[in-house]
Write a structure and sequence with these properties.
Layout lengths: L5 H38 L8 H29 L1 H9 L1 E4 L5 H14 L5 E5 L6 E4 L7 E5 H6 L2 H16 L2 H32 L4 H47 L2 H13 L9 H4 L27 H8 L3
Parallel strand pairs: 2-4
Antiparallel strand pairs: 1-2, 3-4
């Protein structure tokens, strides 16, 4: 595998990630337009002197302001509450220097070497091996390590893992990933609301002629929401995969010991499962996906639905430094 220089890798991944992130609001507007067209065509009264397209545009202009306000409110709440949400989802707790001098010194030394503000350090009480970075600014940036990864890795290996997470913070990956997670959460919420409305309408208006129109409307909403959720998930997964390669390269540059991180990844791959983590959106933040996946039809689809690139591929690239 040909190695791509860190600077080139940064430029490519930053461009692709920003492009993918910009597609989220575009996707919201596009799906709103699709919803308007389908609703006018299948479930609304037609006007002889006005085309379906003109009616759909009028409906789109009426819906969009309310939708955008709702999306912005949801985004702000989720964005600024992310620290509490992540801590609750992982069961992590903060530590100070007196609690673990070894970890604190490793993080502090790396931050000093890079001129970075030192992030908070959290511990996940789990014997498995995993770690992640989170936060949206210097006040909330956090590196979280499992108890297992602290106890089972050598200092050089653990330093490589911490450098990987600090690279995520330095490159603002964590902020980007949290934004993408919030957008996917919006589509998930809309899908769930539409599904519940569909069930309610079908039961309440099963024998009502007028109720059939309501069912059609909700069914259209459900289809559009599912389409949006599917594409939003693909975008989020693509952002995550590309960022992991860059964080590995940044850690190798920061520590000058790429083999140490490669060794750490081998050990992590043997037992990355964190029992407290049950949410896929939070799992995306970890250095390796912490939820064991069952083998199914999607397992062989070239990693399309994977939040992380294959760990063997990451090790191969590190060994080329």
């Amino acid at each position: 595998m040909k190695y791509v220089g860190l600077h080139t890798q940064k430029i490519r991944n930053n461009f692709r990630s920003v492009l993918l992130l910009c597609l989220f609001p575009c996707l919201v507007l596009l799906l709103t337009l699709l919803f308007s067209v389908l609703l006018v065509y299948f479930a609304s009264e037609k006007y002889e002197n006005v085309s379906v397209w003109e009616q759909a545009i009028t409906l789109f202009m009426r819906i969009t302001p309310y939708l955008l306000v709702g999306v912005v409110v949801w985004f702000l709440i989720a964005y600024f509450a992310n620290t509490a949400i992540i801590r609750s989802a992982t069961g992590s707790h903060s530590i100070e220097r007196k609690d673990n001098k070894r970890i604190y010194n490793l993080v502090e030394n790396l931050c000093m070497s890079q001129g970075m503000v030192m992030p908070k350090i959290n511990i996940i009480e789990d014997d498995s091996l995993n770690a992640f970075a989170s936060g949206i600014n210097n006040r909330t940036y956090t590196v979280s390590l499992s108890r297992g990864i602290i106890n089972k890795l050598e200092d050089e290996e653990l330093e490589g893992v911490i450098a990987h997470e600090l690279t995520h913070i330095r490159n603002r990956d964590v902020r980007l990933l949290i934004v993408s997670i919030v957008f996917v959460g919006i589509f998930a919420m809309l899908t769930q609301i539409a599904f519940r409305m569909l069930l309610h309408s079908s039961v309440r208006n099963r024998n009502n002629k007028d109720g059939k129109g309501a069912v059609v409307m909700v069914l259209i909403s459900l289809v559009v929401a599912i389409i949006g959720y599917f594409f939003a998930m693909l975008m989020r997964f693509a952002i995550s995969r590309k960022r992991e390669y860059m964080a590995d390269a940044g850690a190798a540059e920061m520590t000058h010991r790429p083999q140490a991180l490669a060794n750490a990844l081998r050990k992590i791959s043997q037992d990355p499962d964190i029992e407290a983590v049950t949410r896929d959106d939070v799992a995306q933040l970890f250095i390796e996906h912490p939820i064991r996946k069952k083998e199914n039809f999607f397992s062989g689809m070239s990693g399309l639905f994977a939040t992380h690139p294959p760990i063997k591929k990451r090790i191969d690239i590190l060994e080329q430094f």
